[in-house]
Amino acid sequence: MSDFTALELARIQFGFTVSFHIIFPAITIGLAAFLAVLEGLWLWRKDQSYLDLYHFWSKIFAVNFAMGVVSGLVMAYQFGTNWSFYSQFAGSITGPLLAYEVLTAFFLEAGFLGVMLFGWNKVGRGLHFFATLMVAIGTMVSATWILASNSWMQTPQGHAVVNGVVVPVDWGAIIFNPSFPYRLAHMVTAAMLSTALFVGASGAWHLLRGNRQPAVKRMFSMALWMVLFTAPLQVLIGDMHGLNTLKHQPAKIAAVEGHWSNTPGEGVPLILFGIPDMEAETTRFKVEVPRLGSLVLTHSWDGQIPGLKEFAPEDRPNSTIVFWAFRVMVGLGMLMVLLGLLGALARWRGRLYESRVLTRFALWMGPSGLLALLAGWFVTEIGRQPWVVYGLMRTRDAVSHHSAMTLSVGLVILVVMYFAIFGTGIAYMIRLVKQGPHTDEADAMAHPTSVNQRPARPLSAVDESLHSSSDQR
Fold first, then answer.
1. Residues 90, 168 within the same domain
2. Which of 378, 402, 426 is at the close of a domain?
C-alpha cells in the first residue's frame, strides 16, 4: 500500500466500512416491514403459514440487526479518527442529525425489539403486533435521519459559514435539502427490493429442493409480487433522482455518462458501453445511441448537459469508476424488472411453483439487490468527489493528519476483522435461510421450555448452533 496517499487510504477505509455496513441496514429495513406484514396477515387471516414465516425470518432479522449495529459504530468513530477536520467544519449539522437518529429511531427500535423477539408468551397479540410495527417504523425513521445527513453533504443548504465553520441557520432547509426526498425514496425502495429478492431466492432454493410447504410457497409468491411492483417503481424514482442530480451536481451526471463535450445543435448520445479515459479526456471504444442521452437526461430530443471538459480537472469525479458502477446498477435493475414480469407470467399460467426456469432465475437474482445497492452508493459517493460537502469543503481538506503507514495498518486490521466477524455472521444467516420455515417453530416460540428466561441480546432469539449442520432438516 506504499503507493497510496493518506487521503486515498482514508477514503478506501471509509468506503470499505460503508460497503459492509450498508448491506445490514438495507435488509433490516426490508425485513422489519416484511415481518410487520406477516404478523398483520396472520392476525387477520389466521393462516398458520404467515406465523411460521414470521418466526423463521425474525431469527434472521435478529442476526442481521446485531451486525448492523456493530458495523455502524465503526463508521461513527471514523468521523473523529480519520475525518476530524470534516467534523470540525460541519459537526454542528452532522452531529445533531446523527443524534436525532439515536434519540428517535434507535431508541424506538431498541425499546420494542425485545418485545418483538421474546414477547410471544408475555404480552397479548395486539401489543406484540404493535411492537413489530414500532420496530419497522424505527428502521424507517433511522433511514430518514441518515439520508438527511448524507443528502445535506450532497446538496447543502440552510447554513452559513462563519469563521470557516458551518453554522445551521434553517433546520427545515437542512433536513429537506433538494436531493433528500429522491435519495430517501430511492434508498428505501432499494431496501425493500433487495429484501424481496433475498426472500424470493430463499423460497426458490427450497422449491428446487422439493420443499413445498405452504410457508415456502407463500414467501416465494409474496417476494415476486414485491419485485413486480417495486422494480419498475425504482426505475421511475431513479429517473427523477437523475434529473435532480443533473440540476444540482452536473459534474456527477457527466461522469456517469462518460460525456466530455457537446456539439452545437446536436443532442447528447447515450453511451451504452465504453472506457472513460480521465487523462486523455475521452471515452474510448464507446457504443452509443444518438440523441438517446438527451431524451433520458433532459426529456427532450436535442437537450444538452454539461460535459466534463466544462469543469476544471480538479473538480471532476472519476468517470471510469462511476460510469461502470452506474451500468452495473442499471443492468441489474433491468434484470429485476424482467424477473417480476416472468413471475407475473408464470402466475397467470398457473406455473408459479412449477417453472424451474423461474425458480433458478430467482435464486441467482438473490444477491442482485444488494449488489445494485452497493453500485448505487459508489456512484453517489465517488461521483460527489472531490467534495466531501459539495461546493463547500474538499475531501483533501477533511482528512485527519495521519501517515499513510498508520492508515495502512488500520485498513488491514479492519479488513481482517470484518471478514472474520461479519463473514461468519453472514455465513450463519445463510445457514439459517437454508433450514427453511417449519411449523414447530411457532409452537416452540409460543411455549418456550424456560418461561423465566430473559434474553439480553438480539442473537438470543436464535437457538440454532453455528456449528449445526445445514442439512438437519
1. yes
2. 402
Give the model's pLDDT for residue 295.
87
pLDDT in tens, 442-466: 454 444 444 444 555 555 555 555 5
pLDDT at residue 66, as a whole number? 85
Pair (298, 389) in one structural domain:
yes
Query: pLDDT, tens digit, for every residue of 90-101?
Result: 989 999 998 898
My answer on whether 17 and 146 are in the same domain is yes
What number of other Cβ atoms are within 10 A of residue 412's Cβ?
Answer: 12
194: number of CA atoms within 13 Å, CB side? 27
Structural domain of residue 161, as residue ranges?
A: 1-177+413-473
DSSP line for 90-108: HHHHHHHHHHHIIIIIIHH
Residue 223 lies in a domain: no
Name the band, by pLDDT with cuts 50, 70 and 90, for residue 157: very high
Cell digits for 328?
Answer: 452495473
150 shares its domain with 241: no
Burial (Cβ within 10 Å: 0-12, 13-18, ≥19) of residue 196? buried
* Predicted confidence (pLDDT) per residue in 268-297, tens digit: 888 899 999 998 888 899 888 888 888 888
Q: In which residue are the cell numbers 439459517 written?
A: 432
Rounded distance, CA 229 to CA 225, Å? 7
Give the integer Cα–Cα distance in Å for 76 and 237.
29
pLDDT, tens digit, 9 for 90 and up, residues 66-88: 888 888 888 888 888 889 899 99
Is residue 398 domain-shared with residue 420, that is, in the same domain?
no
Burial of 126 (0-12, 13-18, 19+ CB in 10 A): exposed
Residue 316 falls within a domain, yes or no?
yes
Tell me if 297 is assigned to some domain.
yes
